[in-house]
Amino acid sequence: MSSITYLEAIREAQYEALKENPNVFLYGQDIGTFGGAFKATKNLGREFPGRVFDAPISEDAMIGMAIGAAVEGARPIIEMQFADFSSVGFNQIVNQAATLYWRTNTPCPITIRLPSGGTAGSGPFHSQSMESIYAHYPGLVILTPATVEDAYWMLLDSVKLEDPVIFCEHKFLYYHLKADDFGQSMPIGKARIARPGRDATVVTYSAMLHESLRAAEELRLDGYEVEVVDLRSVKPMDTDTILASVARTGRLLVVGEAFPWGGVTSEVIARVASEAFHLLDAPPLRLNSKDTPIPYHPNLWKSHRPTTSSIAAELRKLLRY
């Protein structure tokens, strides 16, 4: 296989899901002939006629239809043009899809693809990371693939789950990230040690994995070995792997692109502080985007989100303690 991008992995996973299961269908705005805003469904409508549908500009209606279809035995994959727009379907997602099994003993196997996170020039309405919001609600599975391999395997696994899945794929990785093949699958809910180390632990996910790995490499030049944990799955969260890493290093930095108030980074620190306080040699730190709407200007955007240099600076502060 020639080099494949993160976006191509998502397209290929949808192709495989459609091919394997006649109950799978795709639904989203302009995903049919046009192939979607990012071409994640390019040519799939031609390959699978009658199973790739264009949706109205109503995220509320899109999710409502998907829930009804799932109740009748289908397995819809819904594409939101941008993660930000999913808030229009928020009621259907958290009050209907998330609770359906608990209310009626009827599964709701829908997969909602959210093109998430920022890119230069996208601004406040097309750059948000929504994983923390949806993780608050019981009944939803929240996935945040950071590699080509996970983009492929985790999307395929999402379609097979009986629970509604929020699949947070990062737009910045669509074309920037490539791999030679799809590698091996890992179970949903299992974190991955992306880089072993002994001096500090960075727990992160999605596009921040790659910024964190570059920061760890920068610290290596100073003689430090930083362990980097890729959560992969925000909910369920692999607390055991996090605690085991902190036990090895004694120091913790949690990095996320979402806003700082509450959220995934806070949850990781809360779990470590409550379950493994005795393992810490320094107060745990977190690094998020700024607590402001996301700016349009590329230079402001770079200052708004965590970067290799800001992660490295936080790690040096942690290691000096």
TrEMBL record:
Single GO MF annotation: oxidoreductase activity
Cofactor field: thiamine diphosphate
InterPro entries assigned to the protein according to its UniProt record, in alphabetical order: THDP-binding, Transketo_C/PFOR_II, Transketolase-like_Pyr-bd, Transketolase_C
Pfam family, one: Transketolase_C
Domain of life where this protein originates: Bacteria
Alphabetized UniProt keyword annotations: Oxidoreductase, Thiamine pyrophosphate
Keyword Oxidoreductase assigned: yes
SMART domains, A to Z: Transket_pyr
Domain called Transketolase-like pyrimidine-binding: residue spans: 4-176
Keyword Cytoplasm belongs to the record: no
Name of the protein: 2-oxoisovalerate dehydrogenase subunit beta
Protein species of origin: Brevifollis gellanilyticus
